[in-house]
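Collaboration report, partner site 2.

Our partner group contributed sequences for two proteins of shared interest, and the home lab folded both. The records are reproduced in the order in which they were received, starting with the first partner submission.
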Amino acid sequence: MSSHTGETGDAGPVEVEPMPGYLDLITRASSVMLSAWRDCSTCGLELSKQTLRDNAYITLTEIALFFFCAFLWTQVRRGLTESLFKPLAQWWRLLPKDAAKMPESAWKLVFYTMSWSYSTYLLFFTSYSFFHDPPSVFYNWKSGMSVPTDIAIAYLIQGSFYGHSIYATVYMDAWRKDSAVMVVHHIITLALIIFSYAFRYHNVGILVLFLHDINDIQLEFTKLNVYLKSRGGGYYLLNDVLSNMGSVSFSITWFWFRLYWFPLKVLYATCVSSLQSVPGIPFYFFFNALLLALLLMNIYWFLFIVVFVVKVLKMKEVNDVREYEDEDGSRAAAAAAAAAAAGLVKEPKAENNDDDAGHHISAQGKHVQNGITKEKHL
């Protein structure tokens, strides 16, 4: 067992606390929170206002930087979409519905790869021990303490991006079945980022961001390969394999990072360890309520993943299960017919219409997908 040296003093280094199990998390967290609630005899609106005034630290300069960077992300995305992503979609000859969604996935893949790489650097290539010793996020916590520059940069990047994302989900992204939930997710995430920065809970914030961004990288990578496997009237086996590999990896890491590490590392630290390190820590219940809401949304989206896994097990085509609200079989058939009429794909062969899986390789080396014959490429 390793040891943490961030909180020393006369007693020497503090030993790292082992990560709990689910049962230990539920029993200890509920016990600690119930005890804290009973002891909080003065809790109420007036106390919350006073606590906010006494412990929230954020400057006008930081607020201005947030809005400037949120605007900057929007402009950078528009510039990349018009100058790079749309020309690439046209050059690849993507199907119209895929070409419409490809720039969104490409943009998110670029951002999340950058942001997660930076979070990984902070957690594993610096002196911060937050991942291996989650309770250390509250060691030496003080109201109004200074935020290290490297963590402040991460907060500015992530906070401004989620500010941009609220606007982008409504006005720039393709509207899907869970888009309303996505807007709520962005609002809660932004509230967590601003709140944790203002109250100097930035250490746990970096851990939360690290545990969530990796799944977005895998999701957008998988979606891009789904779009690329059917392009220019052909079928590309490599992109199909990569989309399947990405989807399997996404499913595993979603559970591992968001439903295993997130509650057992983050929620245990914020519900239990926080009060041990800082008795009477400000906005204990509000902060944990936001994190619990984030966990519930992770569980909600996990249900989509379960549906996706069932489709894969039934050998159906890998697609985004969060598609447009009104996109059904008739729209898909209409899109296929339009593509065939435009000469992008070949007309379906009659002998291939009994394929329950939706796609297979014909004897002539053609790939048949949803009743449409395409040239097969590696």
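Second partner submission, folded after the first:
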Amino acid sequence: MMSQRELLTYLLLTYLLLQLFLPLTLSFLHPPHHPPVHVPTLVPHVPTPLIRSRFSAQTQLDFTTHCNSSCFHRGEQGAQKEQLTEKLAFETLYANGSRTLTTVDVKGDEEVETDHFDHPSPIRGSRVKPRKKRVRRQIYGADGRFNIQGDNFLLDYPFSTAVRISTGCTGVLVSQQHVLTAAHCLHDGKDYVKGARKLRVGFLIPPSINGTKAGLTSAKKPLVRWVRVKRTRVPKGWIQGPQEVSMDFDYALLELRWPHRRPFMRLSVAPSSDDLAGNRIHFSGFDSDRSGELVYRFCPVEEESSDLIYQHCDARPGASGSGVYGRVWDNSLERWERKVIGIFSGHQWLEIDGENRDYNVAVRITPLKFAQICYWVHGNRLDCVQD
């Protein structure tokens, strides 16, 4: 027998599912057929030892950047290959505090370099209207977030792929042993945050699984099982770069000490928003204003550039690092699949033609970033081709 709270949650999620699936019916009638995405190959060099981190930075959960026209269009003159490979180099932090720097070469990147990485498409500003000042940052109009409660939902895919990061952020399971999150949750661009010294990942456990009587579960919050992180990787594009530039590289990968037993969500190169089912993105996170609870939201993509996804999904600090996913057409399976296409970073004020526009922003998984993250996960280049 469901309690009143569980019944309300069930009705809300039923309504939510109807809202999600009804717009997809037309997409199912006319599924897209796209050529395979060209993914370059990352060739790593031998890692170079670095001095140990001081872990002196402070965690910044409410991450906000500003970007003007020159910042947004910075890639239009074309970047040199050396600049790309320097940003795709990465730093590895180990559990004992030691760290290394791995430089890379990029092969087969000519097409990606010009089409997907260095030339942000102009924001479709002609149809963007000035917005009124908001009372609370990252909440747009009526709050459209849903609390995920009850054993039947917390342990169900895709909600079960969301995990907590001990520094106060969110992450998403992308393999049996790896978690994708935002770089700013671990590193401020110059040094690792204090909490990264003993970084942990938290898995939600519904109260009833821990032996609590079923009749009392509705009043209790989920418990958390913490697992230590074995290794952390952060792209050089994030480290020691201006925030407006490095926001494009606000992602990091955590390797757990041992595999988990939960389903994970596969990665994908982010398609155009027009090729997302319903033009929608989704993500679940641990927003700071709803302590201890998993919060889900979805919204349409407002604008997009080569490296960022601009949207107005309601979010609060703590949601940073959430895996942004959409329903992407899988040519091999011939069906729509939920796949991680970005990482929620934070908030950005974008100044174009003298007009300030505010967005919540996710880092887009480009072909080059896909190749890099995939290498971090698999440790070899052979498995790193777009599905």
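Feedback sent to the partner group on the second submission included the following. The first helix runs from residue 4 to 21. The helical segments are 4-21, 25-29, 69-72, 81-88, 110-117, 151-154, 243-246, 367-378.
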